[in-house]
Automatic annotation (TrEMBL):
Top EC class for this record: oxidoreductase
Subcellular location(s) of the protein: Secreted
Gene3D superfamilies named among the record's database cross-references: 2.70.50.70
Catalytic activity: [(1->4)-beta-D-glucosyl]n+m + reduced acceptor + O2 = 4-dehydro-beta-D-glucosyl-[(1->4)-beta-D-glucosyl]n-1 + [(1->4)-beta-D-glucosyl]m + acceptor + H2O
GO process annotations (BP): cellulose catabolic process
Organism: Tuber magnatum
Entry-linked InterPro entries: AA9, AA9_LPMO
E.C. numbers: 1.14.99.56
Major location category of this protein: secreted
Leader sequence segment: 1-17
A GO molecular function held by the record: monooxygenase activity
Boundaries of every Auxiliary Activity family 9 catalytic domain copy: 18-230
Protein name, entry field: lytic cellulose monooxygenase (C4-dehydrogenating)
Cofactor: Cu(2+)
């Protein structure tokens, strides 16, 4: 009796597992992401490019600060270099088939030299990728599951270089016919984008604010009557060339995935130093606990294997008394990692999208922040 009870309890736990982006391939370099199951318990705590998440569950509603980068999310201390025009692959560790729905990815430029002190709720986000209902009636979530739980997006080739947060998410619609039943799973990663472009996309949105609990793509029954179209939440993705995506009733929602062959040595990762706060106590947005100590994380020297995170920047600020003048040098190491990655991505997605504002304009199709009252939100599968 006891063992069967334990088994059923484990089964219930398994059923509650949702998904996390555990790795990212950015411009040819593979990164481990923040992992709420292990990172908080490691000493020293690994430094990451990804922002923290409390678990693999959905955020608490679309009108709270959590919709930006996840519940109580705090910044990763590192940033990944990425060339404008290159691709980023988001590797989810798992995704339940029942959690059907779209994916959306946004970029926002951060003030300052990197995104480690950015408040994601104040940034101006522009969408760079989305996909929802496939033309055959399956969802992009089905496609992602079939494709090694992977979504590949391309950084617009013409955007101005600088520090950017990238915000990637899946939206599970299995309970979306209930108020606040749609489940958003956003996650954020610090980038340093290089390139020769200068574009500053105009069609930007805020999080919270972009999505409403009553958006046609958020409050809907995906089972009955059978959907013939689906309105992906948020604006149209930015298309290189300066203009917003053409507004049309039938939109190929994402670039056709290409076969990408990542060659030898594509990553000699050059780590970008994280911002070093001038003095000891760093104020974090949203009432997050002040960061009174910083971990000096001297990276392990061994680099074999593909799962190693490139060496972390040593945070000198941690070792310097707070009273010392704020002339602090960042020391960071670059260790060559030779990686052989052969990525095969094959899937063609055609999504029929009915956009809410035919005719189109630069007016964000999302709604201003703070307009919606917060709903009660529950977990569930
Ligand atoms: C840093 O913050 C802690 C508590 O948050 C406080 O006790 C301490 O005095 C602060 N140190 C400085 C240098 O402000
Ligand atoms: C599948 O995803 C894992 C990460 O979850 C990644 O390490 C691996 O390279 C991926 N395989 C392919 C063929 O893309």
């Amino acid at each position: 009796m006891k063992s069967s009870f334990i088994l059923s309890a484990l089964g219930a736990t398994g059923a509650l597992a949702h998904g996390l982006v555990t790795q990212l391939l950015i411009d040819g370099t593979l990164y481990d992401n923040f992992d709420p199951n292990t990172d908080p318990y490691r000493n020293p705590r690994p430094q990451r490019i990804g922002w923290t998440l409390p678990n693999d569950g959905p955020v608490d509603g679309v009108t709270t600060a959590a919709i930006a980068c996840g519940t109580d999310s705090t910044a990763g201390s590192l940033s990944a270099p990425a060339t404008a025009g290159s691709s980023i692959e988001f590797f989810w560790n798992t995704w339940p088939e029942s959690h059907r729905g779209p994916t959306m990815t946004y970029l926002a430029k951060c003030p300052g030299t990197d995104c480690t002190t950015a408040d994601p709720t104040t940034l101006d986000w522009f969408k760079i990728d989305h996909a929802g209902l496939n033309s055959d009636g399956t969802w992009i979530s089905d496609t992602i599951i079939a494709n090694n739980n992977t979504r590949t997006v391309t950084i617009p080739s013409d955007i101005a270089p600088g520090p950017y947060l990238i915000r990637h998410e899946l939206l599970a619609l299995h309970s979306a016919s209930n108020a606040d039943g749609a489940q958003f799973y956003p996650m954020c990663v610090n980038l340093q984008i290089t390139g020769t472009g200068s574009a500053v996309p105009a069609n930007t949105v805020k999080f919270p604010g972009c999505y409403s609990p009553t958006d046609p793509g958020v409050l809907l029954n995906i089972y009955y009557p059978p959907l013939t179209s689906y309105t992906i939440p948020g604006p149209a993705p930015y298309v290189p060339g300066g203009a917003s995506a053409p507004i049309s009733s039938s939109d190929t929602a994402s670039p056709a995935p290409t076969k990408a062959s990542i060659g030898i040595g594509s990553g000699i990762p050059t780590l970008v130093p994280s911002a070093i706060p001038p003095y000891g106590n760093t104020t974090r947005p949203h009432g997050k606990p002040p960061q009174t100590t910083r971990v000096v994380d001297v990276p392990p020297k061994e680099v074999a294997g593909l799962d190693k995170v490139p060496p972390a920047a040593v945070d000198v600020a941690a070792a310097v008394p707070t009273a010392v003048a704020p002339v602090i040098n960042t020391i960071f190491e670059t260790v060559a990692i030779t990686q052989i990655l052969t990525m095969t991505v094959s899937a063609v997605e055609t999504v029929t999208v009915t956009l809410p504002h035919p005719g189109g304009s630069d007016v964000p199709e999302c709604t201003p922040a703070g307009r919606y009252k917060r709903g009660i939100y529950g977990y569930g599968i």
